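Lay summary. Proteins are chains of building blocks that fold into shapes, and those shapes determine what they do. In this project we predict the shape from the chain. Here is one chain we studied, written as its sequence of building blocks.
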Amino acid sequence: MVRENQVTPETIGRETKAAEILDYVVRLGLDSRREQEKEGGSWVNDRLKDLPTPARERIRQRDRRLVELGLSESQRAEILKDDIEGVETTYVDQRFVFEGGQKILKDQFGKELVREWTDEILENVELRMEDLDRVARLSFDANGLKAINDLSTSHERGDEFLKRIAEVIRNEDCEAYRLLREAGASEVIPLTGGGDEYTILVRGDRPLDIEGLRQAVRSYEAAVAAVDCGDLVDFGDLGVKLRFLGVSPEEYGKMDETARLEMETRFREDIPEGFRMPASMSGGVETLQQGLMLAINDPRDKKRLKPDEQDYDAALSKIMGGLWDASDREMMAVKKGFKARLESAETSPEERALSRIFSRNKAEREARRRIEELERKARSADVLTGEMARLTAMREELGDGAFAEAVVSLMSRF
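And here is the predicted shape, written in a compact code that computers can read:
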């Protein structure tokens, strides 16, 4: 069954056939792997065994140079200590520490891991297009981080909000994880992205069931929505109320009792009594096959996978880039639908409150941009007025023709 908005081989065009390009990349990979077979640095593999091969290879290359200089393993380990710690930091999110001291890996780890998975798939010279459906990426984006940071005036609470969501995506005892397994996932790797973004990479021994993966995405969304974040933003706190309404403490101090009651009424029109800030996130999913299709049809020349691609690593990067773009696109469409639902008339009081919280931040940003634009125009108007006064004073000296040209030139600058 063709997915909604899916790019299919039939849409590619006569000169660009996905199967032919895929076969070409497979052969390109065979040549590349023959050149990359190397030995040495096994102790590095032991230290970095949970990180992707490219990370280990970086250290192994330096280690081989030290071996050539005749250094012992202990000497090499001391020299490479900082490099190894740097590599570990590159792939481990240091913001969050979970129970038992466990940590979560970053999206950068995932990109290199998918490169390895893709490379393994492409080793098969009898590759079928559906084999690319053995790898998928679930893309998630949290909703509400800015609101929590702004209303609580505490980025620590924003980090706690993100940590609670990370707890959900790394939980192997939840319904969503079970659905991933049912969809064919044999490996499930949760990751954090930049800011409020998350990734779950899955790989199967057989092509994954895309609809089953989408059910898992919806299940993760539901699990996050059940997370209580009421302790992160207390809507009974006066400071939170003032920040939500855009009232400064100085303005509040000058209010009489009637004005304060009116302010409280305005606040309760948007935020019902007892409202607790929920967590929420939007997600999307796509497989590596869809990443290939997107890469072949990418309108950006540097991102497009061409039939005569010469560099195997570049070809892999473009296919992986297509996977990331495809899953992010679906996630953004879901996020847009989520916000549209909040703004509709059919929502619950709690959903309407959440909509007001999100729109307040959006309105605040738009108002700030508008103020900056007006300030810029005001400065331009002052400059224009001064320049016109200067030209007018010189009009007799310039003559009518030159004066008119100078005015036209001046106006074109504004």
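What the prediction tells us: The CA atoms of residues 177 and 216 lie 7 Å apart.
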